[in-house]
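During the practical work, I worked with a single protein chain and the tokens that describe its fold, as given directly below.
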Amino acid sequence: MSRRVERIRMGLIAGSVLLLMVLAGTYGYARYRAAKTWLDRGKKLLGASVARETDGYTFSHTLGPNTSFTLHAAKTFQHDNGLWTLHDVVIEVYEAHDNRVDRIYGNQFEWDENQGVARAVGEVQMDLQLPSSVVATQRHGSPATAAGAENIHVRTSGLVFLRKLGVAATPEQIEFSYKGLTCFAKGAEFDNSPSALHLLADVRINGVLHEQPVVLHAVKADLDRDSNVLSFAQPVMETRDRKARADSAVLHLRKDGSVERAEAMGGVVLDTSTEHVTAARLDTTMDGKNSPQTAKLSGGVKLVDDDAKQPAHGEAGEVRLRFDGDGHPEEITAVNGAHLLAKQAGAGGVWLEREMRGDQIVAELHTDGKKGKPRLQTLHATGKAAMRGDSLAKAVGKQAPGMKATSVAADDLLANFVPDGVKKVRIDKLHGQGHTVLRQTAPLTEEHTSTGDTLDVLFAAAAASAAQADLGQVTVASATQVGHVTINNHAAVKPGSKKAQDVSTGSAEQALYDGASEKLSLHGGVRLVDAGTAVVADSVVVDQKTEDAVAQGNVAATLAGSGTAEPTHITAQQATLHKATQLAVFEGSPAKQARLWQDASQIEAATILVDRQNKTLVARPATAGGTVHSVFAAQPRPGATPKPGAAPGILRVESRLLEYSDAQHNAVFTGPVKMDGSIGEVRGQKTTVYFIPAVKDSPKTSSGEMGAMGGALDRVVVVGGVIIDEPGRHGTGDQLVYEAADGSFVLTGTPAVMPKVVDALQGTVTGASLLFRAGDKGDSTIVVTGAPAGEQKPQRVKIETRVRQKAE
């Protein structure tokens, strides 16, 4: 970006400034005053009366208190018809107060006394010294002397002077030289009233100005000596690889010979090698040393650079320039739809682009010393300001390296640049204010966008490799966005994949991006929504490479169910969300455990792992002796008609570990395990709760999302040191199976330890298997089965005890 701005700056200013310097140095007040002096002296000389032929004639005449001239002629001759002829003429004009001597010489002059017409026969030459006031001005106050005087040498022929009209003219070529510049014109006219000088055709200037070769062409040139205005028709200036032209140009001169201001109108074109700048008008102001102070290109400014490796295009309604005391540009302002697009060719046909837009763009530059090169310091864009830059993205797997684009937009953008090598600068930091947008796109259609009130970006100090440096690689080191931050991320799509692109959104008060790790940190009231998962937290760190996220502080997550399924809610102090595996890990604190709930079902544990891809859930405590608390609200069984107002069956479970599988439709608790609720209180070492598979399109189940144990209860299996307590009943055994369909329990044991039920009405009952029902499902019947010792075939034993109920 910086190198391109430098080249554009040269394209906008170097040609125009040099053109004006050429015009000022060639047609300054000193030149026209010297020409006027020659004409005035010649008119008075030719008006003197010479009445005879004389050899070696010398004539002196005083023109005023400080001016006199001396004419030396080898021979003079007066003709009968009133014509005079002077041969080998040398005229010396003295300005006493300026200590200046001008010399005019030619082989022959003819004077028609009757017509008042003077003609120079053959070539006329003049050596005209600048007035000391002009010399002193150009030398910044140093005194002028005759020995060190500066001369303008003029040469022409066919000069004709009309005394009555006060006009001197020649149709022949005129040539004069000054400070290494030589001017040619085809025909000239000197008008005394109004005082004007006209170069009639084919005006050409060439030579060296400010150590630069210069060639200037114009169709004609006019100098109004009364108003100090010099104008050119269709001027064209060339110097080395630069060229400038316009339909017309006007210079406004000061009395000391310097240019005060200059104008170029119509079809203004500034060319520098491959760069072409066009505008309708160019206006400049100059100081007393003919150094530029300001310049303005207006009427629709356009830049086209057709460089094969670094093409560019730019435009603005108007471009203004301000210069320092040494004539170096220190500020460039482009307004009214300023836009610049630059490209740079890379290996393998890759093009990297740099783009900048704004209602106004201001560039500040600094130059070290008089002969230093201007360096870009800042770029300030306002009003719909935007910047964009490409860089090479890292290769992913077998995918070839692609391009990564970074764009920034704001109401106000300020970019700072620092030196990078001898001749280059690089962007160092960027500040955005008002409606800021930071967007980064990658080869696999990834797009990361964030908005906020303010934005600060730091760029990497050096490219990762020399190859990247040659490509103008721009890398974001870090970025900070503050105030009403929103983010919108589009995930990568692998080539050939038919999967829809995942989109995640979020909001926060502050966003911090680290370029080295490609991680985005969000702080203050953070909310993220990604693929059906919504997370609220104090802070969230998102890895933009993997799209994994870590949330910290007062985490609240919602896992949306599909269709009409109830969503799953989770609170925790920390959550880790793995994008690729769809694994979410929620962790609580010592003071507050992680909590999950769906509808009326709940889980509390130190850590809850939700695997949405495999549809599993694991809850575990922080320590080996910790406890996982679970509450399940069983839904009505399919086909069953629930009683009006009946509450769902509730199971409360305490365990050491919970493992739930939606594919297996069960929840496994390892223990010791304690369960109580609608089936009473049950204890054991391991409990498995089976649920009825979700029915497709059921209003309370999900199709594709994990049910989170919110389905209908099928059966419960408890093993290892089983203890069951119901009102009026206590049982022990090795395994207990509960069937929700009929509310029955089957309690079994081992040969060594038989199951046992102590019933308030039946007493103590033991057997190989004890079958009974929950108190609200049936009566107090207990079915006992067993096998006598030594018998191979078990016998079924049924014991029924009926107890008469007391009448109320």
In short: The first helix runs from residue 2 to 26. The longest strand covers residues 375-392. The mean pLDDT is 77. The CA atoms of residues 636 and 645 lie 12 Å apart.
